[in-house]
Amino acid sequence: MATTAPKKVIVMTGGNIGIGFECAKLILSSLSNVHLVLGCRDSGRADRGVSKLKAVAAESNTVESKPLQLASFASVRRFAEDINASFPQGIHTLILNAGLMACSRQLTEDKYEMNMQVNHLSQFLLAQLLLPSLRTGHATWPDEPSSVIFVSSSLHKAGVGRGKDPNLTMENVDGALEFDGMLFYRNSKLCQATCMHLMAASLKDGPVTVNAICPGFVPTTDLKRESGLATRILMDNVISKVSAASTAAEGGARVFETIAKDRRAKNGVYYDKEGPGESSEESRDPAKQKLWWNWTCQAVGLDSLVQ
Ligand SMILES: NC(=O)c1ccc[n+]([C@@H]2O[C@H](COP(=O)([O-])OP(=O)(O)OC[C@H]3O[C@@H](n4cnc5c(N)ncnc54)[C@H](OP(=O)(O)O)[C@@H]3O)[C@@H](O)[C@H]2O)c1
After folding, report:
1. Tens of each residue's pLDDT in the chain, 307 residues
2. How far is the CA of 223 from the centre of ligand 1 (A)?
3. Does residue 222's CB lie within 6 angstroms of at least one atom of ligand 1?
4. CA of 99 to the centre of ligand 1 (A)
5. Is the CB of 14 within 6 Å of ligand 1?
6. Does 118 sit in the ligand 1 pocket, CB within 6 Å?
7. β-pairing, 93-96 with 34-40?
8. How far from 57 is each of 42, 85, 258, 265, 302, CA to CA, in Å?
9. Model's pTM, two decimal places?
10. Which domains occur in the chain, in start order?
11. Distance 19 CA to ligand 1 centre (A)
12. Whose CA is nearest to atom 7 of ligand 1?
């Protein structure tokens, strides 16, 4: 008697709204035999997202949410334990989508700057904690590598977008000397891209690949929720009409493309909205990679330092 393959387990951070939600819709409506887990910080918002997703899911697919507050390393560890315990068959894909742009300087309970912890540190930690599950997942679904996708932003590059260019320094890593919400969003995405490259290199030729995708500029999402009213109105009604802008559905589709067989077969690639591209020069600098990888490992309490 033929055995039924277990559903492929896909884990996504966020996904109850925005670009991640659009990607989740595509996963559930166009793939088959998939179980999608969303890591969400607010149970009410998570439930609303999940019930909308259930309405579009193909018959063979299922979706649930589990609690995940990325501003807390303890919550990230609990979420990873929950995933490891719930899915002994492993996981097939990890999409690190959640993100925010904190406009005022806030320190998390772990004493890191909010943008840096939510957008980079916590999701790096989650990727490391779920590596054993991703390896097990490859044994369960051996046809293609297990895959980690970092949702990046082209704003990690100098000269892209408006405002101050990224300026990631050890001296001001917590924003105590100078703080600007956009600058720290950009710094967090730069640190993420920098560590993505070393993580991919550390897993070279193994069963898990690591790539990044910038979904394009999507002015209509809630990423701007902490901006002033005038900015939010302008983004929704004027800036969203310019040719450089994408819809949330287009952004979600770009993230979705990154989990396809051909793209997950690659390792260490930075995709942008046109296809395979390049992350910033700074993020590809081996000295910077070593510096920020070591800082990141120390911050999240992992000891895999690059010598
Ligand atoms: N919009 C753009 O132009 C753009 C461009 C490039 C890259 N990106 C990236 O795309 C990703 C998705 O952004 P989006 O535009 O879709 O924004 P969004 O609509 O605000 O969605 C952000 C998601 O992240 C979740 N989240 C935020 N803080 C969290 C925390 N502390 N713990 C757990 N989850 C948290 C949110 O949950 P709640 O619903 O609970 O708030 C939501 O599900 C982000 O990584 C962003 O940096 C966006």
Report:
1. 555 789 999 999 999 999 999 999 999 999 999 999 999 999 999 999 999 999 999 999 999 999 999 999 999 999 999 999 999 999 999 999 999 999 999 999 999 999 999 999 999 999 999 999 999 999 999 999 999 999 999 999 999 988 899 999 999 999 999 999 999 999 999 999 999 999 999 999 999 999 999 999 999 999 999 898 998 989 889 888 887 899 999 999 999 999 999 999 999 999 999 999 999 999 999 999 999 999 999 999 998 765 4
2. 6
3. yes
4. 4
5. yes
6. yes
7. unpaired
8. 22, 25, 20, 26, 37
9. 0.97
10. 8-300 (3.40.50.720)
11. 7
12. 153
Which residue puts its alpha carbon closest to atom 19 of ligand 1? Answer: 18
Question: Ligand 1: which residue has its CA nearest to atom 35?
Answer: 98
50 lines ligand 1 (CB under 6 A): no
Reduced to 3 states (helix: H, G, I; strand: E, B; else coil), residue 222 is helix
C-alpha 99/C-alpha 152 separation (Å) is 9
Reported as type and span, the H/E element at residue 194 is helix 181-202
CA–CA separation, 158 vs 248, rounded Å? 24
- Write the DSSP string, 238-293: TGGGSTTB--HHHHHHHHHHHTSHHHHTS-S-EEETTEEE---TGGG-HHHHHHHH
